[in-house]
Amino acid sequence: MAPLLPSLYTLSFAIAFSVTLFIGASLRLLSILPHGPFRPQHLRRKPCPTRVLIVLGSGGHTHEMFYLLRGLDTRKYTHRTYLVSSGDAFSAQRAAEFEANLLKLENERHKKEWEGSINGARSRSRSRSRSQSIASEEGRGEREGKKVCVGPEYYDIAVVPRARRIHQSLLTTPFSSLYTLLCAFKPLFSAGTVLRDEPPHNAYEAASRDFPDLIITNGPATAVIVILASLVLRFFNVRGANSRGKVKTVYVESFARVKTLSISGKLLLRIVDRFLVQWEELEGKGGRAEFWGILV
Predict the structure, then answer these.
(1) For the whole prediction, is pTM greater than 0.90?
(2) Which among 2, 67, 134, 145 counts the fewest CB atoms within 10 Å?
(3) How far is CA 225 from the centre of its chain?
(4) Which domains does the chain have, with CATH numbers?
């Protein structure tokens, strides 16, 4: 009979290695997860090109999300990626309409400014002086990163497979969810509108090729998968995702949740960087829920 000592050594080593790996992974996870309520940090003094990824649901979630985005500052959020589930043509259409409206409003604003400058010009010298002043202001605005970023080149719509289809068996759901998780990494790594073979020509293109600075969601099931994917990137600090402060997450609980959190909210409460609720009854849930009034 062969001695059992080598087998015991192997088993002991395997157990010790597994325990060490588990402890290390737990400590790493604790280091990147938020602790307690949100504490304001020092803002960047100089505005920089920023990419934001917006997770859209279907129906009510999408409707609420665009109410949240109605005052979106395109000088600050310079590239928008709208993430929708496959088959959700409604959300994709709403995203395109929202961006078209942003472009329309900006064109109208430029038209009014131009008409005002023409009507207010009393002399050629004054007109020239005003033109120089406007050019100076625009140049200074672009140098400060305040360029208005609207148009097809400043947004994209990414599609990922559904984590679970209607009437799908629970036995196959883990496999479809894993496939959705793998597909979610692609829109996180860069926007779909960039030309990967060409180097970025400016800071705005560079931002669109990087991880999103911010992920915003209001509770669709796909959001859980996307935020899990972002957590993986931060856990392994892929391309400096964690050390550079990328893929920060904001969860806004649905207006329909008055006294209890949604399933997505319960799952993400201690994972996202900020958790916002719209009813005072939910303030302080889990020690992290922030109440800022009705947002939609």
Answers:
(1) no
(2) 2
(3) 13
(4) 47-291 (3.40.50.2000)
